[in-house]
Write a structure and sequence with these properties.
The chain is an all-alpha fold. It is built from 5 helices and no strands. α1 runs antiparallel to α2, α1 packs antiparallel against α4 and α2 crosses α3. The longest helix has 29 residues. It is elongated, with a radius of gyration of 18 Å.
Length: about 140
């Protein structure tokens, strides 16, 4: 097994940062709901479950990327794209600082996971699978 390039480690760290943000957000909504501060508890509880499940999935993908599992690349890419979408909507609602921070994190994550060294580590055979030849 080849050594892990720094781009993979950093991409996994960015994914872990997104995971932590999802978990904190879900936990915050849960606490606010339990304290009776949620505007709509019927919507807040499913949002909490969704955020915590998303955090678990994102964390699993960060682990997969760190372990050099090629399947982890696509969900990590999608996660960063979703963060960009959320950043866009935060910017349209006037939350410019949060939007800029989210966009920067997502952009760094995308660059790292698409870096040639990351690609080479995740797909050491050039992306070809057993027996298929180009031709």
């Amino acid at each position: 097994m080849s050594s892990r390039p720094v781009t993979v480690t950093l991409a996994a760290a960015v994914q872990a940062l997104v995971t932590a943000a999802l978990a904190v957000g879900g936990g915050y909504v849960l606490v606010e709901t339990l304290l009776g501060r949620a505007a709509d508890a019927g919507a807040a509880l499913p949002l909490t479950v969704l955020a915590l499940l998303a955090a678990g999935a994102a964390g699993y993908c960060a682990w997969g990327l760190l372990r050099l599992h090629e399947w982890a690349r696509t969900p990590v890419l999608l996660t960063q794209i979703f963060v960009l979408v959320v950043a866009y909507y935060m910017a349209t609602s006037g939350q410019y600082a949060a939007a800029a921070a989210m966009a920067a994190v997502a952009a760094v994550g995308l660059v790292l996971v698409l870096a040639p060294t990351t690609t080479a580590a995740l797909f050491p055979d050039g992306g070809r699978r057993g027996g298929r030849s180009e031709g």
